[in-house]
Amino acid sequence: MTHEEHHEAKTLGIGKAIAVLTSGGDAQGMNAAVRAVVRVGIYTGARVFFVHEGYQGLVDGGDNIREATWESVSMMLQLGGTVIGSARCKDFREREGRLRAAHNLVKRGITNLCVIGGDGSLTGADTFRSEWSDLLSDLQKSGKITAEEATKSSYLNIVGLVGSIDNDFCGTDMTIGTDSALHRIIEIVDAITTTAQSHQRTFVLEVMGRHCGYLALVTSLSCGADWVFIPECPPDDDWEEHLCRRLSETRNRGSRLNIIIVAEGAIDKQGKPITSEDIKNLVVKRLGYDTRVTVLGHVQRGGTPSAFDRILGSRMGVEAVMALLEGTPDTPACVMSLSGNQAVRLPLMECVQVTKDVTRAMDERRFDEAMKLRGRSFMNNWEVYKLLAHVRPPKSKSGLHTVAVMNVGAPAAGMNAAVRSTVRIGLIQGNRVLVVHDGFEGLAKGQIEEAGWSYVGGWTGQGGSKLGTKRTLPKKSFEQISANITKFNIQGLVIIGGFEAYTGGLELMEGRKQYDELCIPFVVIPATVSNNVPGSDFSVGADTALNTICMTCDRIKQSAAGTKRRVFIIETMGGYCGYLATMAGLAAGADAAYIFEEPFTIRDLQVNVEHLVQKMKTTVKRGLVLRNEKCNENYTTDFIFNLYSEEGKGIFDSRKNVLGHMQQGGSPTPFDRNFATKMGAKAMNWMSGKIKESYRNGRIFANTPDSGCVLGMRKRALVFQPVTELQEQTDFEHRIPKEQWWLKLRPILKILAKYEIDLDTSEHAHLEHITRKRSGEANI
Questions:
Q1: 206: CB partners within 8 A, 6+ apart
Q2: Does 443 have pLDDT greater than 90?
Q3: Does 314 count as an annotated binding residue?
Q4: What's the pTM?
Q5: Is 310 annotated as a binding residue?
Q6: Is residue 208 a known part of a binding site?
Q7: Fold of 405-530+670-705+715-731
Q8: Which CATH architecture has domain 17-175+305-360?
Q9: N or C terminus: fewer CB in 10 A for the chain?
């Protein structure tokens, strides 16, 4: 990385102008994207314009196209919807309208357009681009623009960001707004579950998704629904029988409620709509259950964006500006997309084409193809749902193999969802599943019991750890642990937990030399708010903690905005790992985030204070500073608070807030529920295979490195990695992995907070092709 390249980003936009618009249905997180486009655009030296009211504003021009300033996007990160407005626009569909739009852009010297919207809006942008030179020559002929203006604006660059709550755009794992819509749906499902249980009711919930069943599918995984209807995969012809049998089976197992999720576009094999009323009437007529229908409607578009959508919007906004400014007349219009946790550029029209192919496949009733085109992540969700909801556990009690499940470390939201899917997939495979209370300590003391199907009923949405969890490591109790492995005939171990689960795994590997009983396969599922387990980019529970911190920061910012000239210093958890502080800083719009991984000196603190002093002279008179609990032993939260208080005298006053254990609590977010459910299912499938492999002379004997693994998400796939191989990637003293992917997002945090720093442009997304992506997509 040369110094010239560094410098380039800051001057990349000089003499250029960018316009940003939001179009089509609104989605939470659009504001985060607009804010990032404006600020990064200004940072590169470009002028940035808001286009109000979508394409309508582009056609009407005038006051609808206004120059944006740094302060004009302040306080919009936490707002839902789109602040600059969106409208469905008929005029832009006609050439006459596009001619007027081109005129408005040329007159202002704007040749870069960032469109945030669904596939319709993005297709419109591509049409506009392909006609650009014809539109210009028409404008020149009619004398509306000069030859000089036409030459200056000879080509138009377009970048799309997909904002749509349906997640119906092919080519990206998540569209902006999907995660927030899931948050709204799950809040409601949780609320309905409590009332349904009181009255032993059946609830039919209708969620949005005319042509795409993503919201319905993930919701049903996240709440353990009895049945889901999605347009991509209509039920078999005798579905009425099957559904009623399924509902009465659930009731007979002792459940007091049934939940059925319906996507608004649900159809049967003949393409005839299946409505929520149809389902209600069927259940009432056949089973006589007290049944209620709830149609969620526009609630799903509302509310504040989740932490995930704010970070996604911000990252995509940064990438969009870079793609626009690096664009040439030959680069195709591209769309920024997310693959695993990587940002990639994809040709816009390729994505639109595949998205249209799905709809066509569904219209022509080629449903298998529609499912395949949705991608691997969608298929995986569907497979796990089918297993958990439709496969009957075997009746016989004998059990093939015995697998034990436990929680280790500190509680994290989503642990229970992981236990639930592990137990149920184990039972479906015909295994005997045991649950261990209180971690390795319980394993030593014999606090072990057998779990049946309904033991874990309703666990998905519950926070904390129902099995109980301790930080105790196994080494000092090997004698007792070995005795209990023999006594309970445990043949495999699923360990759900944080850094201790990983170090405990290493100790078990070490112990195999002395104790044959420890030669059984085990797998670690990372679950900790700190997200510090080696071998995984994400851990169960981190997303929930992030949202909790974010919500608190929003409230604190609101209070600061009222009192003016106030700086808040907030301490977050995470041990030595700066993940929560950094990501919450991005999601809440912090001025700085102090972390252990990026050492800082008194000079850096001085620069930060000076920066806030300058900020108080603008219209934005408040500051937010995050500090990871162990970022520096001497520069404590109190020290930083005192420093800011002293230096800010007469300019701003400071307040401090230690968030503490609220970060470990709360009901798990949809992401954590879904992630945990899929991790549990994948771990149990691996376990069954490993036990079969290790079966020798009537007993299990596993002594290879690959029989003790961490299951982690790496870039775009879920992978099993031997714990022993991860040793060299670990900083044991500070309990963190030596390399952490999210550190690359730190510069974005600083640029969005108006620091004059160098943005490393070598790390940017490269153009890929959607066909290639299909095969290597995130396997989660």
A1: 262, 263, 264, 276, 293, 294, 295, 296
A2: yes
A3: no
A4: 0.93
A5: no
A6: yes
A7: Rossmann fold (3.40.50)
A8: 3-Layer(aba) Sandwich (3.40)
A9: N
